[in-house]
Amino acid sequence: MSEERQNLSQPDPEYAALLASTTLPPLQKLDIKVLREGFDKSIAAITREIYGPRLPSESEYRVEDHMVPVEGAQITVRCLVPISKADKARTFPLFYWIHGGGGRLGTVEMDDLLLRTICVEFQITVVNIEYRYKSELRSVEELATSTPLLNKESLYECYNDQGGDPFNPESSPLLYPSHIGLPPTYFQVCGLDLLRDEGLLYERLLREAGITTKLDVYPGVPHGFHMFFPKIKQAAKYEEDFRKGLVWLLNGAREDEANA
Protein backbone atom coordinates (compact mmCIF):
# COMPACT_ATOMS: atom_id res chain seq x y z
CA MET A 1 0.00 0.00 0.00
CA SER A 2 1.39 3.42 -0.93
CA GLU A 3 2.17 5.99 1.74
CA GLU A 4 -0.68 8.13 0.44
CA ARG A 5 -3.18 5.27 0.86
CA GLN A 6 -1.79 4.54 4.33
CA ASN A 7 -2.38 8.16 5.30
CA LEU A 8 -6.00 7.88 4.18
CA SER A 9 -6.39 4.97 6.61
CA GLN A 10 -5.12 6.86 9.65
CA PRO A 11 -8.18 7.64 11.82
CA ASP A 12 -9.21 11.28 11.94
CA PRO A 13 -8.52 12.52 15.53
CA GLU A 14 -12.04 13.91 16.05
CA TYR A 15 -13.64 10.77 14.70
CA ALA A 16 -11.36 8.51 16.75
CA ALA A 17 -12.22 10.36 19.96
CA LEU A 18 -15.95 10.10 19.34
CA LEU A 19 -15.72 6.47 18.31
CA ALA A 20 -13.89 5.61 21.52
CA SER A 21 -16.83 6.95 23.51
CA THR A 22 -19.52 5.30 21.36
CA THR A 23 -20.95 1.80 21.80
CA LEU A 24 -22.43 0.26 18.67
CA PRO A 25 -24.17 -3.13 18.50
CA PRO A 26 -22.73 -5.71 16.09
CA LEU A 27 -25.09 -5.30 13.13
CA GLN A 28 -24.83 -8.86 11.88
CA LYS A 29 -26.13 -10.24 15.17
CA LEU A 30 -29.37 -8.24 15.22
CA ASP A 31 -32.69 -9.45 13.87
CA ILE A 32 -33.17 -7.66 10.56
CA LYS A 33 -36.53 -6.16 11.58
CA VAL A 34 -35.06 -4.84 14.82
CA LEU A 35 -32.07 -3.51 12.92
CA ARG A 36 -34.28 -1.70 10.39
CA GLU A 37 -36.47 -0.14 13.06
CA GLY A 38 -33.48 1.03 15.07
CA PHE A 39 -31.71 2.34 11.99
CA ASP A 40 -34.77 4.29 10.82
CA LYS A 41 -35.28 5.87 14.26
CA SER A 42 -31.62 6.76 14.55
CA ILE A 43 -31.48 8.32 11.10
CA ALA A 44 -34.72 10.24 11.70
CA ALA A 45 -33.36 11.77 14.91
CA ILE A 46 -30.04 12.66 13.30
CA THR A 47 -31.53 14.25 10.19
CA ARG A 48 -34.08 16.24 12.21
CA GLU A 49 -31.24 17.70 14.24
CA ILE A 50 -29.10 18.49 11.20
CA TYR A 51 -31.64 19.61 8.62
CA GLY A 52 -34.80 20.37 10.60
CA PRO A 53 -33.83 23.99 11.38
CA ARG A 54 -32.94 24.56 7.72
CA LEU A 55 -36.07 23.16 6.10
CA PRO A 56 -37.62 25.52 3.56
CA SER A 57 -41.23 26.62 3.80
CA GLU A 58 -43.70 24.05 2.45
CA SER A 59 -44.99 26.79 0.16
CA GLU A 60 -41.70 26.62 -1.77
CA TYR A 61 -42.02 23.03 -2.99
CA ARG A 62 -44.50 20.22 -3.39
CA VAL A 63 -44.23 16.54 -2.50
CA GLU A 64 -45.60 13.74 -4.68
CA ASP A 65 -45.43 10.11 -3.55
CA HIS A 66 -45.94 7.49 -6.24
CA MET A 67 -46.28 3.74 -5.75
CA VAL A 68 -44.55 2.11 -8.69
CA PRO A 69 -45.19 -1.56 -9.50
CA VAL A 70 -42.04 -3.62 -10.02
CA GLU A 71 -41.39 -7.34 -10.25
CA GLY A 72 -43.18 -8.92 -7.31
CA ALA A 73 -43.57 -5.72 -5.30
CA GLN A 74 -44.16 -1.98 -5.25
CA ILE A 75 -41.63 0.73 -4.52
CA THR A 76 -42.12 4.29 -3.35
CA VAL A 77 -40.88 7.09 -5.58
CA ARG A 78 -40.99 10.49 -3.89
CA CYS A 79 -40.80 13.58 -6.09
CA LEU A 80 -39.87 16.97 -4.65
CA VAL A 81 -40.63 19.82 -7.04
CA PRO A 82 -39.85 23.51 -6.49
CA ILE A 83 -42.76 25.92 -6.77
CA SER A 84 -42.07 28.90 -8.99
CA LYS A 85 -44.51 31.70 -8.21
CA ALA A 86 -43.23 33.80 -11.10
CA ASP A 87 -43.46 31.11 -13.78
CA LYS A 88 -45.80 28.20 -13.08
CA ALA A 89 -44.74 26.47 -16.31
CA ARG A 90 -41.06 26.52 -15.38
CA THR A 91 -39.16 23.25 -15.52
CA PHE A 92 -36.16 22.30 -13.38
CA PRO A 93 -33.05 20.12 -13.61
CA LEU A 94 -33.69 16.55 -12.47
CA PHE A 95 -31.78 15.11 -9.50
CA TYR A 96 -32.09 11.32 -9.20
CA TRP A 97 -31.39 9.87 -5.73
CA ILE A 98 -31.22 6.35 -4.32
CA HIS A 99 -30.79 6.03 -0.56
CA GLY A 100 -28.06 3.92 1.01
CA GLY A 101 -28.46 0.90 3.24
CA GLY A 102 -26.62 -1.99 1.61
CA GLY A 103 -29.77 -3.57 0.22
CA ARG A 104 -31.09 -4.22 3.71
CA LEU A 105 -31.80 -0.83 5.33
CA GLY A 106 -33.24 2.60 4.63
CA THR A 107 -36.34 4.15 3.06
CA VAL A 108 -37.18 7.33 1.15
CA GLU A 109 -37.44 9.02 4.56
CA MET A 110 -33.73 8.51 5.17
CA ASP A 111 -32.52 11.56 3.19
CA ASP A 112 -35.88 13.29 2.86
CA LEU A 113 -35.04 16.43 4.84
CA LEU A 114 -31.73 16.94 3.04
CA LEU A 115 -33.43 16.51 -0.31
CA ARG A 116 -36.20 18.97 0.55
CA THR A 117 -33.50 21.47 1.44
CA ILE A 118 -31.51 21.12 -1.77
CA CYS A 119 -34.70 20.99 -3.88
CA VAL A 120 -35.43 24.59 -2.94
CA GLU A 121 -31.84 25.78 -2.49
CA PHE A 122 -30.75 24.70 -5.97
CA GLN A 123 -34.16 24.80 -7.68
CA ILE A 124 -34.02 21.17 -8.79
CA THR A 125 -36.66 18.47 -9.04
CA VAL A 126 -35.65 15.55 -6.84
CA VAL A 127 -36.74 11.98 -7.59
CA ASN A 128 -36.05 9.88 -4.48
CA ILE A 129 -36.20 6.12 -5.14
CA GLU A 130 -36.90 3.49 -2.47
CA TYR A 131 -35.45 0.14 -3.50
CA ARG A 132 -36.55 -3.32 -2.42
CA TYR A 133 -34.57 -4.94 0.35
CA LYS A 134 -32.32 -7.77 -0.69
CA SER A 135 -34.43 -10.22 1.31
CA GLU A 136 -37.26 -9.40 -1.09
CA LEU A 137 -35.29 -9.61 -4.31
CA ARG A 138 -32.00 -11.16 -5.35
CA SER A 139 -30.42 -9.06 -8.07
CA VAL A 140 -27.09 -8.17 -9.58
CA GLU A 141 -27.52 -4.49 -8.84
CA GLU A 142 -24.83 -2.92 -6.68
CA LEU A 143 -26.58 -0.97 -3.92
CA ALA A 144 -24.80 1.69 -1.90
CA THR A 145 -24.42 0.86 1.77
CA SER A 146 -24.91 3.53 4.39
CA THR A 147 -24.17 1.35 7.40
CA PRO A 148 -21.29 3.08 9.19
CA LEU A 149 -18.17 1.40 10.54
CA LEU A 150 -18.48 -1.63 8.29
CA ASN A 151 -16.18 -4.55 8.88
CA LYS A 152 -15.47 -7.17 6.24
CA GLU A 153 -18.13 -9.55 7.53
CA SER A 154 -20.97 -7.01 7.44
CA LEU A 155 -19.81 -5.74 4.05
CA TYR A 156 -19.86 -9.25 2.60
CA GLU A 157 -23.27 -9.80 4.17
CA CYS A 158 -24.59 -6.69 2.43
CA TYR A 159 -23.27 -7.60 -0.99
CA ASN A 160 -22.75 -11.34 -1.30
CA ASP A 161 -26.36 -12.19 -0.52
CA GLN A 162 -27.64 -10.29 -3.56
CA GLY A 163 -27.49 -13.54 -5.49
CA GLY A 164 -25.92 -12.08 -8.61
CA ASP A 165 -22.81 -12.84 -10.61
CA PRO A 166 -19.84 -10.93 -9.13
CA PHE A 167 -18.25 -10.86 -12.59
CA ASN A 168 -21.25 -9.16 -14.18
CA PRO A 169 -20.58 -5.45 -14.86
CA GLU A 170 -24.08 -4.72 -13.56
CA SER A 171 -22.76 -5.79 -10.16
CA SER A 172 -19.55 -3.76 -10.43
CA PRO A 173 -19.29 -0.99 -13.04
CA LEU A 174 -15.50 -1.29 -12.75
CA LEU A 175 -15.77 -4.40 -14.91
CA TYR A 176 -17.29 -2.71 -17.96
CA PRO A 177 -14.82 -2.89 -20.87
CA SER A 178 -15.46 0.76 -21.69
CA HIS A 179 -16.65 3.82 -19.77
CA ILE A 180 -16.76 6.13 -22.77
CA GLY A 181 -19.91 8.23 -23.02
CA LEU A 182 -20.75 8.44 -19.33
CA PRO A 183 -21.75 11.87 -17.97
CA PRO A 184 -19.50 14.08 -15.82
CA THR A 185 -19.29 12.54 -12.36
CA TYR A 186 -18.68 13.86 -8.85
CA PHE A 187 -17.10 11.54 -6.26
CA GLN A 188 -16.90 11.71 -2.46
CA VAL A 189 -14.65 8.96 -1.06
CA CYS A 190 -13.95 8.21 2.61
CA GLY A 191 -10.49 7.08 3.68
CA LEU A 192 -11.72 4.30 5.98
CA ASP A 193 -14.48 3.07 3.66
CA LEU A 194 -13.86 -0.57 2.77
CA LEU A 195 -14.83 0.33 -0.79
CA ARG A 196 -12.50 3.32 -0.86
CA ASP A 197 -10.13 1.89 -3.45
CA GLU A 198 -13.02 0.86 -5.71
CA GLY A 199 -14.23 4.47 -5.64
CA LEU A 200 -10.77 5.86 -6.39
CA LEU A 201 -10.23 3.34 -9.18
CA TYR A 202 -13.62 4.06 -10.75
CA GLU A 203 -12.85 7.78 -10.77
CA ARG A 204 -9.52 7.07 -12.47
CA LEU A 205 -11.09 4.79 -15.08
CA LEU A 206 -13.69 7.42 -15.96
CA ARG A 207 -11.02 10.10 -16.20
CA GLU A 208 -8.89 7.90 -18.46
CA ALA A 209 -11.97 7.36 -20.66
CA GLY A 210 -12.26 11.11 -21.17
CA ILE A 211 -15.04 11.68 -18.64
CA THR A 212 -14.82 14.90 -16.64
CA THR A 213 -14.65 14.05 -12.94
CA LYS A 214 -14.41 15.90 -9.65
CA LEU A 215 -13.07 14.05 -6.60
CA ASP A 216 -13.07 14.89 -2.89
CA VAL A 217 -11.45 12.51 -0.39
CA TYR A 218 -11.92 12.48 3.41
CA PRO A 219 -8.95 10.87 5.19
CA GLY A 220 -9.48 8.78 8.28
CA VAL A 221 -13.27 8.57 8.34
CA PRO A 222 -15.61 5.68 7.42
CA HIS A 223 -18.57 5.32 5.12
CA GLY A 224 -21.55 7.31 6.40
CA PHE A 225 -19.51 9.29 8.94
CA HIS A 226 -21.16 12.60 8.06
CA MET A 227 -24.53 11.33 9.29
CA PHE A 228 -23.40 9.58 12.44
CA PHE A 229 -20.70 12.06 13.46
CA PRO A 230 -22.12 15.30 12.01
CA LYS A 231 -20.30 17.68 14.35
CA ILE A 232 -16.72 16.88 13.37
CA LYS A 233 -14.93 19.23 10.97
CA GLN A 234 -14.75 16.73 8.14
CA ALA A 235 -18.53 16.28 8.25
CA ALA A 236 -19.01 20.01 7.70
CA LYS A 237 -16.54 19.86 4.83
CA TYR A 238 -18.33 16.82 3.38
CA GLU A 239 -21.63 18.71 3.26
CA GLU A 240 -20.00 21.85 1.87
CA ASP A 241 -18.23 19.81 -0.80
CA PHE A 242 -21.49 18.04 -1.69
CA ARG A 243 -23.10 21.38 -2.42
CA LYS A 244 -20.10 22.58 -4.40
CA GLY A 245 -20.11 19.35 -6.36
CA LEU A 246 -23.79 19.75 -7.16
CA VAL A 247 -23.22 23.34 -8.30
CA TRP A 248 -20.33 22.14 -10.45
CA LEU A 249 -22.58 19.60 -12.18
CA LEU A 250 -25.44 22.07 -12.62
CA ASN A 251 -23.08 24.64 -14.13
CA GLY A 252 -21.87 22.28 -16.82
CA ALA A 253 -19.08 20.37 -15.05
CA ARG A 254 -16.23 22.39 -16.51
CA GLU A 255 -12.94 20.52 -16.37
CA ASP A 256 -11.00 23.63 -15.36
CA GLU A 257 -13.25 23.97 -12.30
CA ALA A 258 -13.15 20.32 -11.24
CA ASN A 259 -10.44 20.85 -8.64
CA ALA A 260 -11.40 24.38 -7.66
UniProtKB/TrEMBL annotation:
- SUPFAM superfamilies noted in UniProt: alpha/beta-Hydrolases
Which InterPro entries does the annotation name? AB_hydrolase_3, AB_hydrolase_fold, GDXG_lipolytic_enzyme
GO MF annotation, one: hydrolase activity
Start and end of every Alpha/beta hydrolase fold-3 domain?
A: 154-227
Q: Name one Pfam family in it.
A: Abhydrolase_3
Keywords (alphabetical) are:
Hydrolase
Q: What is this protein called?
A: Alpha/beta-hydrolase
In which organism is this protein found? Obba rivulosa
Q: What is the lineage of its organism?
A: Eukaryota, Fungi, Dikarya, Basidiomycota, Agaricomycotina
